[in-house]
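Homework-ish question, so no full write-ups if that breaks the rules, but can someone show me the predicted structure for this set?
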Amino acid sequence: MTVLDDKGASPPMSHAPADTPNLSAVRTDVDVLLTAFLDRKAHLAPGPELAPLFTVLSRLLGRGKRLRPQLCLAGWHAGGGGGDQSTALNVAAALELFQAFALIHDDVMDGSDLRRGRPTAHRALAAAYTNDGGRRSKAEAHGVSAAILLGDLALVWSDDLLHSAGLGDEALKRIMPLVDTMRTELVYGQYLDLRSADRLSDDVEAALRVVRYKTAKYTVEWPLRLGAVLAGAAPHVLDACSAFALPLGEAFQLRDDLLGVFGDPAETGKPVGDDIREGKATVLMALAVQRASAAEKQMLRTLVGSPAATDDDILRVKAVLQRTGAQQHVERMINARRETALAVLDQTVFPTVATRVLREIVQIATVRQA
Amino acid sequence: MTVLDDKGASPPMSHAPADTPNLSAVRTDVDVLLTAFLDRKAHLAPGPELAPLFTVLSRLLGRGKRLRPQLCLAGWHAGGGGGDQSTALNVAAALELFQAFALIHDDVMDGSDLRRGRPTAHRALAAAYTNDGGRRSKAEAHGVSAAILLGDLALVWSDDLLHSAGLGDEALKRIMPLVDTMRTELVYGQYLDLRSADRLSDDVEAALRVVRYKTAKYTVEWPLRLGAVLAGAAPHVLDACSAFALPLGEAFQLRDDLLGVFGDPAETGKPVGDDIREGKATVLMALAVQRASAAEKQMLRTLVGSPAATDDDILRVKAVLQRTGAQQHVERMINARRETALAVLDQTVFPTVATRVLREIVQIATVRQA
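A: Not a homework solution, just the prediction itself:
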């Protein structure tokens, strides 16, 4: 089970003319808000023993590519928000804390060792424990427990930041229902994903539903809509945001699934075959099962979700994904969704500053190599 | 590491004269709110596959003794809240969802099998997975991951309930800072507790600090103050709430620590010696270490925190806790704190309905057998 990280989705470069707000500064602005927030918390912390929580969280936060903040700010401008982006930036910072929560718990659930090129939270907290004199024999269990708590803290703080950011009652009242829905939908998506893992299935619709909850709505639609709602966007603008976000989000995840199997490990940072060994129930796999021969199905049943699968086994599975045409079909699905998203941008009159960033995000999300 | 469950702390019986609000109805009122909330969520859930999350959460919620709601309502009346308890009841229901989150993650971290006499969330979700055709070999890992997600969901929903309960902007604005602080302090307390486990220490102050964060503030002070703040209590009333809550909360946890070692398993539902095998860094243990002979210290170092400790080993550790006078000292600490809490009630003019319930909670929390 995985929450889509936005590694590889670099923030759009700035083409902003001097007279339009500079969206590419979002990364810096969000960094400043997150650092100030964590500094406040650290200042109030009841003891030095809590230091590892701050170290690990700020390191993780420092390495995000700020895709959700970019979308939130683009939504702000799409919704007619003015030059003062401060409320949208605070919401964007809260989204990054929420994503940190999602990634920390996700890595615990997957038992992953690396995240954004560094040890995952549970590994880092296990190391901190032994460095600090904790028993080696208990370090791994400690790391997992501490990471569960750190994820909880990031979730609690994503809320705290919203409350303490001086958003104003009106803005808060407008966005909290969306935030609540976003949070619930992410957990639902994660659970559906978890449940479907290790069950080789030909149900493309079920796989697409997981994609919708886990990525399309959480990673793209809600950040964009949150910004737009903050700006007081008209209903037709919000509809346009969703019409753009959902196909883009699906394309984003479908690309991620392809990269998980066919990507260059040097680029993706993921060992070859991990997705196959984990038995991820992707659209790609469901399509292959639909089209596989009896013998191929039998082989997939044996190898997909088997941690013991050898590199040769992985190659045989990849061959089936290609021979059945599943890989090309997913490429076509990505293209169709990219075209739909771009068409929405063509048909909708968003302010240039928003349209420009959204176009760049479409490219980054669907054509990336990592 | 443990969050104090309120099993055994039965809701006060009603002595309420007809003309005062019936605080003992709190349990029913909170049940109704929680059931209605979960029904709304279940109605909106995107698929039947999510059913296990609802089953397990509502079963857990159904078995709480509603200590925090009792305190929240007592605070409401202490703060001068009127007969319409609805806002306080909604906050009380949110506190129960938050406690469900804390218990679910706590049981995952401790690897506990039973909670409130039933399988813990991760065990129940593992069983649901296999019943539903999931691979036996993956059931345990699935249960843990699903329970992490269910805990996350309960946390998200404790917030959702606050937002959707029609508390009104004014009430929300008043309590959110307290709620945020409460959440952060619980996670801090859990982390400090986790960190101190398996490190035999004579630091009574450190052990007391964990008690303060994990129990005194979270379980007693914040629920009481939340109710009082909702009612618009005057500052001196809030001070009285804390002056009452902190010693009571410490006494509550100290009693729990004694029961964890010397309690009757038939009453506590905890296997004898579990706290010792887990190496819980309690005030009781710190006092024993302070007073132990070199030989006794050596023995404690070997046996405390050793899952392999035999029942004879446990008896030897208990003997040290008694011979050193640590057990009696903790009894005296409990009595001193109970007296302080009761003295606050004597010196403070809370409305009778509040004082009565708070007196009953003092008895339940400090004199209980389970």
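Now go work out the reasoning yourself. Hint: The CA atoms of residues 114 and 120 of chain A lie 5 Å apart.
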